[in-house]
Each structure stands twice: as structure tokens, then as C-alpha cells.
Specification:
By secondary structure, the chain is of the alpha/beta class. The protein has 12 helices and 11 strands. Helix 9 links the parallel strand 7 and strand 8. The longest helix is centred in the N-terminal third of the chain and has 28 residues.
Length: 295
């Protein structure tokens, strides 16, 4: 396929799950969108979309084609960056994806330092959960990933720790356990535990700790952000395991306390992660060096 425009149209349809919205975003007619998709389906020899009622969905082949399509354009973008890097090492694009905790509480100060050094580099920061960080790296939608959890398949990734990450158990200042001695994991697991969503690195660390001691995580409530968990704890809805960096302000202000629980604090780290086979542009290389040199 010498002409990549039909592929670009297909990806827009797949991203929008709508022929009409794809046409609007590309400023072409809906009939033109349909023509390009049919052209691709003739080339690959299988249908890429199917209809379920009034909706369209990707077929299995369509999902595979979509994944490869995004990789093709990511590689083209990577090629462009390589060529630009030959002309100037101080320009380009830096794409960072960070897990929720790191993206809010860790990465911004580093990006501020980077921006002062390289003001002409365009910076993109996506704050998502750990699973989505890995997807962004896998599809080359991010140069670097910052997360508090090591990928399972280490051989595919270059992983570098750069900052300590201490997980603690927190409760409201008037919690009945505030003056207790060391609490057991059994007591903690039977309390109302407020946890992040599945896919969060903090939740995975807590789950692994409990499983390692023959216990099961029984969430009292699942919330989608650290801020929501902190507010819920402060209002007496339960206790939570959070990074110490997340609760520094609330601990200093006396709005939360650290509870003394066996096996805590959990000593972890934040990591800079990228695909081992990925080309790191000069901006990405400089950003990685900044993380590792200023830990």
C-alpha cells in the first residue's frame, strides 16, 4: 500500500467507532470514508468492521489491523524525529506516560527542570494507570513510561529505578487504632480498605503482600483516584494504602495519620521504562538522564 491515506481513514473510524465522526475529523465525506475502508478490506481480503445493531465494531482481523496501523504511523513519526534530531538535538517531541501517582506527584517537577533546559521541545504527559502506561509503550505512543511497578516480561523492556516509593497505611486522625501498637495484616485486611481500581500498581503491591501471607484483598470501596481515596479516608470511610509522597501534605496538616501495621511501610521504587528495541530520541534520552541523575 503505497498510499497510507486509506489506513489513516480506517484508524480514524476505529478510534471514533463512527464513519460520520471519522469523516468530520478528517474533513471528508462519509461516503469517502466508506470507500477507503472498502478499499482496505479488498486489499487485506477480510472484513474489518461488523455491525451490531446500529453500532459498528472491529472484527478480530480489524483489531489486529488497527494495532499494526498505529504501529506503522508511530514508526513513521519515530523516523521523522530521527531525521529532525540529525538537524537539531534541542528540538522535537517528548512523550511521557506515567501511572496515576507518579504523573501527579513525581513527574511534574522533573518536567519543569527539563522544560527550562530544553524550552523548544514539545512535551506531552499522559497520566493513566499502570496497564495503560504499558500499552502506550507497546504501541510506541510514549517514549518513556514512569511507574511504580516493574513489567512482568523484563526482556522486552529497559527498566531503571530512580526514586524511592514508600507505601504506608493511613487513616483519619481520630481512628480507633491511632494509639494501638503494631497491627497485624489480618486486622488490616478485615478493616474497610479503600483501594484503587484493578490495574493500579499500588493495589497490585497490596494484593501481592496479602496473598503472600495467605490473605485475600477484600475492598471496602474501590475509587478511581488517590485524591478520592484521601477524601474518603479523611471522612471516616475506611483506611488505605498509599504512597507516602501522596499524603505528605495531609500528614503535615494533621488531616491523616500513618497507622503502624506489620510489613509496612512497603519499600518500592518508581522506574523509568522504555521498550528495549525502541529508538530513544535526543529529548527522550535527555529526559531519562535527568530522571536518573536527579533521584
Amino acid at each position: 500500500m503505497d498510499n497510507l491515506h486509506p489506513l489513516r481513514v480506517f484508524l480514524s473510524v476505529a478510534d471514533n467507532m463512527s464513519f460520520s465522526r471519522a469523516g468530520e475529523s478528517l474533513h471528508i465525506s462519509q461516503s469517502a470514508v466508506s470507500m477507503h475502508v472498502r478499499t482496505l478490506e479488498r486489499i487485506v481480503g477480510v472484513p474489518l468492521f461488523s455491525r451490531v445493531g446500529r453500532r459498528i465494531v472491529l472484527t478480530e482481523a480489524g483489531q489486529t489491523f488497527c494495532d499494526y496501523g498505529h504501529r506503522i504511523f508511530a514508526l513513521l513519526d519515530e523516523t521523522r524525529q530521527v531525521m529532525e534530531a540529525e538537524q537539531s538535538g534541542r528540538r522535537g517531541v517528548l512523550k511521557v506516560s506515567a501511572d496515576t501517582t507518579a504523573g501527579v506527584y513525581v513527574v511534574p517537577p522533573y518536567l519543569a527542570v527539563f522544560h527550562r533546559r530544553f524550552p523548544d521541545v514539545k512535551i506531552s504527559l499522559n497520566v493513566v494507570n499502570r496497564t495503560q502506561v504499558m500499552e502506550h509503550l507497546q504501541h510506541r505512543d510514549a517514549d518513556l513510561g514512569i511507574m511504580g511497578y516493574i513489567p512482568d516480561t523484563m526482556e522486552a523492556w529497559t527498566v531503571s529505578p530512580f526514586l524511592a516509593n514508600q507505601l504506608v497505611v493511613v487513616g483519619p486522625p481520630d481512628h480507633p487504632w491511632q494509639h494501638r501498637g503494631k497491627l497485624t495484616l489480618v486486622e488490616m485486611s478485615e478493616a474497610s480498605l479503600l483501594v484503587r481500581e484493578v490495574g493500579s500498581g499500588t493495589r497490585q503491591a497490596l494484593d501481592r503482600l496479602l496473598v503472600g501471607h495467605g490473605l485475600t484483598l477484600k475492598p471496602g470501596m474501590e475509587l478511581g483516584s488517590n485524591s478520592a481515596i484521601k477524601q474518603a479516608v479523611m471522612h471516616g470511610l475506611g483506611i488505605a494504602v498509599l504512597s507516602h509522597r501522596v499524603v505528605e501534605f495531609e500528614l503535615t496538616a494533621g488531616r491523616l495519620i500513618v497507622l503502624d501495621v506489620e510489613e509496612f511501610p512497603i519499600q518500592r521504587a518508581w522506574y523509568v521504562v522504555h521498550r528495549t528495541d525502541a529508538y530513544l530520541s535526543p529529548p527522550a534520552t535527555a529526559m531519562k538522564r535527568l530522571f536518573l541523575d536527579h533521584s
